[in-house]
Amino acid sequence: MSEQLVALFQNIGLAEQKAKETAKNKNLAPTLEKAIHSAGYDTNPAEKSTGALVYALASTITPTALPHLDYLAKAIRDSRLTTSDQVSAAIKFVQDKKEIDEAKFNEECGVGVVVTKEEVNAAVDAYTETVKDKLVKDRYKFFGLFFAGAKNLPSLKWANGGDIKEAVDAKMLAVLGPKDERDVVVKKKKEPKVVEAKEETKVADMFFEGELSKLHVPGGNPQVKPELMVEHLKATGGKYVTRFPPEPNGFLHIGHAKAININFGLAKAHNGICNLRFDDTNPEAEEERYFTSIIEIVKWLGFTPSEITYSSTHFQHLYELAIELIKKDKAYICHCTGEQIQMHRGGPERGPRTACEHRGRPISESLELFEKMKNGGFEEGQAILRMKMDLENGNPQFWDLVAYRVLKTAHHRTGSEWIIYPTYDYTHCLVDSFENITHSLCTVEFMQSRASYYWLCDALEVYKPVQWEYGRLNVANTILSKRKIAELVNKKHVFDWDDPRLYTLPAIRRRGVPPQAINKFVHTLGVTKSDTVIEVSKLDSFIREYLDETAPRLMGVFNPIKVTLENLPEGHLEMLNVQNKPRDPSMGEHSIPFTRQVWIDGSDFREQDDEDFFRLAPGKTVGLLNVSCPITCTKVIKDESGKVVELIARYENAPGFKKPKTYIQWVAESPKHNSPVRLDEVRLFDRLFHHANPQDKKEVPGGYLSDVNVDSLSIEKGALVEIGLWDIMDRWAKSSETKTDYEAMRFQLTRIGYFCVDKEADLGDFKKPNASIKDTVKNIVLNRTVSLQVNSSLKNRA
Asked: Is the Cβ–Cβ distance between 601 and 665 less than 8 Å?
């Protein structure tokens, strides 16, 4: 990355950090540099809005439109293209054209077309009449579809998007009036698991604004043969068809949550369908547990696939097309080793590329050898089928990619039927074609693959979906690499792939993170072409926000200290009704005992008081949460080692006692109420790595394993919780479909944090009729989901 390139990118209005990120992007940087030079902004900086169009051009231009980059950049400079929609139309128009008819270009791209606000208002008024019934019925929930429909009106094709939104907002206000109670999303009084299973993921504006709003409508992508599109539209009915296509060779991670939301969300936003498709073409790495986990995670996030499909279903068809590719002289059998292929591609020095000796072999010979591969005539590595592409092309994805290889490994679905397996580069686009996918969405590292994706579909003359790339989602202070997570597991740095310190989705789920919080987090980030690295604290804030609204409150104490209230009689008992969430009666309430003996948190007492400590100390008074009167410490009892084991306190129930400044949580000792609930283990998790990027060799020269935070897990033993925990557990037992999703038992321990039950807890035989978990439980293990957000200056005042 050169300073000159960063400065050049700043000339079109990119912020310094964005310019640096773009300069590192090997796919985008050369195209953007050329566009800037073509537009003349290398010497004269562009207006920010114009610079944004240049950036949009460079980041979205297709390979077949790339020869006209200079023309399009100058059209932006000359103010012929003034909106992102015009740039998108211009890219589409010049695709596959040798020469540009300027008059047709102007017509197709809306050059010189001005749509006034008055015309926008008139068009929106007319459109409103066609959807008025739906608008009145759904009210403000209809905004997304209303806005998208207005934006797609032919008369508003070149209108300013802001003007359209303004007109839509004004029309909705005129028809519906201000928002009222009908437009408030009412919380359904369902148990947590029921909500998770039934609640539908809301459609967010990201599907109608920004990058995703620029995607083509079904039928808008040209084909090598027009009849292919006719057949496609007949099969789909013009619907959006997407797919989430994981490889079943590992567990999904936080980045996949973005992919799931985008693929399922785009289809839902346009009343289309989304498949869950397993790209299962590598039997050496695939395991049944990965298939099961992926299906569970997609459901857990709130999405239901239209269909669960497998690439392996198409092995025979893929094989037949490979034969057809050979017959077209677009594939050949090669015997080169991996090292030899690398050298033919220019080697480490990136020298000239050369064809291997097998590239020119006769078609009949390749057909014969391919059959021999299929029938076991070659060992692994002795023969491969390569696609005959374009070695002179600067894109490595054209350097004769491998289509088939020999793998003498049984497949989880097809058994030993096949010993040759298609590669991802060969399979992915073809199965997209078979499934009539309209929008093949993937992350930006596949941008170069778009050209080879299209090449193969066109070479075989099959329907060609559109590939579109978006930026990856990464989280700081962690790693997502399957190989490196496996090493962490094998070297016992973490329990397993679902260790709550990791950011695999099973790990996040086990930590008690609600799926709704993840979905909202992803939707709030939106969709861009740039990779995103998010601080853990930002994700935690979404988790905390959701749990604050939904998690019931309990009192619990760590390192408990017994407190005896000397002026209350033996056997004193008050049953207190406590709201599950303060100031929110809708969440219900539960009862807890208050007795002569209670337990407090060890951190809430100091034998040596100081002016910055506002909790209990000898001679000092504090309030007990939910109790009418405060207590004053009158005596400290220690064991032989000097450890504080009990406090004697006075219950200040005399008339006129001053209200205390500070209240602390407590748990009563009451055996007949099974109080307190004794926890076997509470696990408190911290960041797994010290550095934001543990794979940065400059910051972490010893490698990522040397950066592991050995204090990332601390375990509290002997913690106590109030009996309201039994209510939470019993409600879960009644509502849970699987009876295994322990993490759905979520709650806040007041003044401590948000917690859930870990899967290693032993709840006993609670499934039998009329059983209560308090009678069957054998041990309880909790995980801290996220801490409370407390101002550091107030910690001692809490």
From this structure: yes
Cβ-contact 198, 448 below 8 angstroms: no
247 carries an active-site annotation = yes
Q: For residue 57, give the amino acid letter.
A: L
Give the CA radius of gyration of the chain. Answer: 32
Contact between residue 756 and residue 784 where contact means Cβ atoms under 8 Å apart: no
Residue 159, amino acid: A
Read off the tokens for 335: 């015997």
What is the sign of the dihedral through the CA atoms of 306, 449, 505 and 409?
A: positive
Hey, which of 44-48, 52-56, 89-93, 706-710 has the most confident mean pLDDT? Answer: 706-710
pTM above 0.90, yes or no: no
Of 21, 247, 435, 722, the active-site residue reads: 247
If phi > 0 it is left, if psi is from -120 to 50 it is alpha, else beta; for residue 753 that is left
Catalytic residue among 139, 141, 359, 482: 482
Interhelix angle 28-39/48-60, nearest 10 degrees: 130
Alpha carbon distance 265, 282 (integer Å): 28
Write down the pLDDT at residue 181: 66
Question: Is pLDDT of 288 > 60?
Answer: yes
Distance CA 278, CA 247 (A): 6
Let me know if 286 is a catalytic residue: no
482 is catalytic: yes
Query: CB neighbours (10 Å) of residue 766?
Result: 17
pLDDT over 70 (residue 195): no
The pair of structure tokens assigned to 755 is 């917690």
Distance CA 548, CA 562 (A): 30
The answer to whether the beta carbons of residues 555 and 722 sit under 8 Å apart is yes
- Tokens of residue 472, six digits: 């990856």
Find the catalytic residue in 239, 472, 581, 759: 472
Find out whether 74 and 39 touch, Cβ atoms under 8 Å.
yes
